[in-house]
From TrEMBL:
Domain of life: Bacteria
Stored Pfam families: ORF6N
Ranges of residues in domain KilA-N DNA-binding: 14-99
Name the UniProt record assigns to this protein: ORF6N domain-containing protein
Family matches, as InterPro entries: KilA-N_DNA-bd_domain
Organism: Bacteriovorax antarcticus
Amino acid sequence: MTKLDNEIFKIKNMIYFIRDQKVMLDSDLALLYGVETKVLNQQVKRNLKRFPSDFMFQLSSEEFHSLKSQIATSKSGSGGKQKLPLVFTENGVAMLSGILNSDRAINVNISIMRIFTKLRSFHALETSLSGEVKELKENSNKLFKVVFERLDSIEEDLIPKLPNQRKRIGITSDKPT
C-alpha cells in the first residue's frame, strides 16, 4: 500500500454517516490539518457565518455516545466532561479551507474533497448496479415462468397417460411363506 493509499484509507475511515449525511468530526479534521481541535473550533466560531447548519452541526449526546461505541475509543484524554463535538459535512470541510489557510490544510482539503467525490460516484454506481440486478432478476423470473409453462404443456402432450389400474411389477409367489 502506497503512502497515498494509506492516507486515503485513513481519511475514508474518518467519514461517518450521521443524520443521513456523510460527516467528519472536528477532532479528526484537526488531526489531519495538524492543529489542536480547540484551535480549529476557535477558527470556526470566528467565522460562524460561513457554517450554516447544512455545513456543520454539533452532535447530540445520543449521537455522540452512539458514535463513540462505533469507533470504540474516546478522543478525550482528560476524563472530565467532554464538549460534544462539531461535525462537518462535505460543504463544511470545503469551507474550512478558507479559514485554515496553511499549505497542509489546503492539501488535506483537496484529498478530502476527492474522497467525498469518489464515495459519491461509488454510491451512484452501486445504485445503478442494484437496479440492473433487480431488472435482470425480474426478467429471469419471467423467462423461467414461460419455460416451465411450456414444459408442462409439452409433457402433457408427449407422455402417454398411465392407466389408473397398473399391473404390479415384481415377483409374486402363490405359496404361503
